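Technical note accompanying the year-one report. For the benefit of new consortium partners, we illustrate the data format agreed upon in the data management plan: each record pairs a sequence with a structure-token string. No post-processing was applied to the example shown here.
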Amino acid sequence: MALDNVKYAFYENDFVNYIIGYKDDKLVSLKLVKENNIDSIKNSFSDFVNKQLEEYFNQERKVFDIPLLLDATGFQKKVYFALLNIEYGKTKSYKDIAIEINNPKAYRAVGLANNKNPIPIVIPCHRVISSNKKLTGYAYGLDMKRRLLNLEGCILTN
């Protein structure tokens, strides 16, 4: 499903800057960026999403209440819905997620779906780590993954 008429809004934050992609009143993407490179179109919905992200970064919000519109395959959607069930401050392994979606051998495919997650943080792919409890793969780098997990109070071994 290709999404048409998506609008983008840039927001600055002390933790990370981001671009919110939205269509009507649904979040379709969140991109972590260093600087603004778009024509930013803010509205009440993008401000609503930004407010929830600000609360998260200030450790005032643990659960997001944002309507989502996912442009993803059926498998990816299964993975993303499983990720939404990982509690704030907790982690699961790629294998755990594969088991949860009834495809126990698909842990590598779970990793690929995580890498393509269009709405990081809200769909918390940063909470997925390797079975040996080590940080592995994150589209925005391991340093950002570590920062997000530290924000949530996760104790990491590496």
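Partners are asked to follow this layout when depositing records. The chain has two domains: 7-57, 74-151.
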